[in-house]
Amino acid sequence: MPSITPQQKIYFLSDFHLGAPDHEQSLVREKKVVAFLDSIKDSAAMIFIVGDIFDFWYEYKQVVPKGYVRLLGKLAELTDRGIQIHCFVGNHDMWMRGYFEKELNIPVYHHPKVFEWNGKRFYIGHGDGLGPGDHGYKFLKKIFRNPLCQWLFGILHPSWGIGLANYFSRKSREKTGMSDQHFLGEENEWLIVYCKEMLEKEHFDFLIFGHRHYPIDFKLNDNSRYINLGDWIRNFTYASFDGTDMQLHQWQS
């Protein structure tokens, strides 16, 4: 991996959930994300979007969900400028199948991935289905990622398919409730438990996830930190790496 110069930063953000709960509120968030991306275009060496860009996304053979043109246009502008953007799928937009790669020149990752810059090792992923517990979702995730199940969903008319997906998205948010508004404690934060298990196998300086919707910078040991990026629904938080250290920030538009 190339080194990061003192004038550059790598930026990380996640969980926009564009489309929810309605068009009007989603549009306000979309404009905030676009404004943020525009503000970092001169300093960004790379940008990582770590899942759940959309509250629902399914790429049919010739169709993608309508809307989000401001964000998609800004991403295209940035990659055309030569800025590398990397995208991870989340549990709400896991059905990405080539549109971002072909139209926006953005690689899309479906599993956590290891990166290294300036001698620092990063483990990056959305975070869904990792760690102990949540067995019901882990079972559903296997179904959702099954190629046959995806094909069966794809033969539904988009009006039916998107309507069904939006229903399950609402149910998912209702199940989460208020748990994304406070720290649950070291033993109850499943991603902290997962990070500790990962560090028993190999060293990482920073383990970075989204999904949790609550910004967290947690010291796992003397040399490793777990960072959760929060969201762009309530917190409007992101992280940056300056070549030496990681920091969490809140976007003030």
Automatic annotation (TrEMBL):
- Which PANTHER family is this protein grouped with? UDP-2,3-DIACYLGLUCOSAMINE HYDROLASE (PTHR34990:SF1), UDP-2,3-DIACYLGLUCOSAMINE HYDROLASE-RELATED (PTHR34990)
Q: Name one GO biological process term.
A: lipid A biosynthetic process
Q: Residue ranges of the Calcineurin-like phosphoesterase domain? A: 9-215
Its organism's taxonomic lineage begins at: Bacteria, Pseudomonadati, Bacteroidota, Chitinophagia, Chitinophagales
User: Does this entry carry the keyword Membrane?
Assistant: yes
Question: InterPro entries this protein is in?
Answer: Calcineurin-like_PHP, LpxH-like, Metallo-depent_PP-like
Write down the Gene3D superfamilies for this protein, in alphabetical order: 3.60.21.10
Asked if the keyword Transcription belongs to this entry, the reply reads: no
Q: What is this protein called?
A: UDP-2,3-diacylglucosamine diphosphatase
Q: Which GO terms describe its molecular function?
A: metal ion binding; UDP-2,3-diacylglucosamine hydrolase activity
